[in-house]
Amino acid sequence: MHMAAYVNSVAKGIATIMASYSSINGVKMHAHKQLLTDYLKGKLGFKGFIISDWEGIDRITSPAHSNYSYSIQASINAGIDMVMVPYNYTEFYDGLIDLVKKNAIPMSRIDDAVSRILRVKFAMGLFENPLGDYSLINEVGSQKHRELARQAVRKSLVLLKNGKPGNPPILPLPKNAGKILVAGSHANNLGYQCGGWTIEWQGVSGNNWTAGTTILDGIKATVDKRTQVVYKKKPSDTYSSKGKMDYGIVVVGEVPYAETNGDSQNLTIPAPGPAVIENVCKETKCVVIIVSGRPVVIEPYVDKIDALVAAWLPGSEGQGVADVLFGDYGFTGKLARTWFKRVDQLPMNYGDPKYDPLFPFGFGLETKPIPSTKKPEL
């Protein structure tokens, strides 16, 4: 199931592949000769080079780096061609030379690795033009790019619920509503919208890191000028009723993460997210928008919610969320993966014998744009 993408990519001439930190049947991928050399380079005919992950060869042993000479030998002989050594490169350099001199790593393996790296560099024209082309640098982040990103946000939103049983759909929301409460930790946070690997490795929090629009910004820019938008990050359980809100929009989700920092045994929405959902949705008609890079536990709240939207990570263009919430465009997105009920069901995949998801693979409700407000597609 997971190999199909590699087969197609290799057939189309992909130049580099990175080994994973993971293990297969107890063998670290960085030391897995059967998969890296015999299968990838041999059976699939991969002609590019394999690069290690950040300190990937160190983690062949446990504790990491406890036998570095062995890690060098095992990884290079397994088929790693280029090694990512972020700090003490001289240790790797000296260790590799020593192992070659001792014939622990054959010179033929070094020749193969160097040939693969040079082949890719020649194919890219790096010896003729070693520096990147900066002629389009000013286009990065241009309005045209942002419009395309905003379109991607609109099309990737997945509507999971639209109206409680026996009630009419709540979305799209009316732009001329009298008063709308926007709540939650992710409603006004560009860093949270962007997720990990943005600005910093683990991502950031706040709105001072990059240009863009938050979901709150988008809502304010979309509604009628007479509509009052009230933002309260963590409202009390009586805030909506006392404020006589017509609608509540709750935006919660996961904080940014990258790689192993995102490992979770429970996949729950961090506090105070669940409390905000409870407080807002018990008092007024509510739309809950989940900002996350993956499905999370939401089954306990679904019955209390009028409408539920998976926004994934909308990045810098929160306006794209508002475009669809208020009917300028319709919801069209479908789940690219199964949304589970409980973590004890995982792993869960479409076609499993006991497939019992909260929302199945490919699910996604649709809405029609409101004709009077729809804007032309790009």
Structure in words:
Residues 2-120 form the Glycoside hydrolase family 3 N-terminal domain. One of its GO terms (biological process) is glucan catabolic process. This protein is an alpha/beta fold. It folds into two domains: 4-124, Glycoside hydrolase, family 3, N-terminal domain (TIM Barrel), CATH 3.20.20; 143-345, Glycoside hydrolase family 3 C-terminal domain (Rossmann fold, 3-Layer(aba) Sandwich), CATH 3.40.50.1700. The protein is built from twelve helices and ten strands. The chain has helices at residues 4-11, 33-43, 68-78, 89-101, 107-124, 143-156, 190-194, 215-222, 239-242, 273-281, 299-302, 319-325; strands spanning 16-18, 23-24, 27-28, 49-51, 158-162, 179-183, 228-232, 247-253, 286-291, 307-312. The strands form three sheets. A six-stranded mixed beta sheet has the order 5-10-9-8-6-7, with helices on both faces. The radius of gyration is 25 Å and the shape is elongated. The two termini are 35 Å apart. The mean pLDDT is 95.
How are the secondary structure elements laid out?
Elements: H1 4-11, E1 16-18, E2 23-24, E3 27-28, H2 33-43, E4 49-51, H3 68-78, H4 89-101, H5 107-124, H6 143-156, E5 158-162, E6 179-183, H7 190-194, H8 215-222, E7 228-232, H9 239-242, E8 247-253, H10 273-281, E9 286-291, H11 299-302, E10 307-312, H12 319-325
Parallel strand pairs: 1-4, 6-7, 6-8, 8-9, 9-10
Antiparallel strand pairs: 2-3, 5-10
Helix pairs in contact: 3-4, 6-12, 8-12
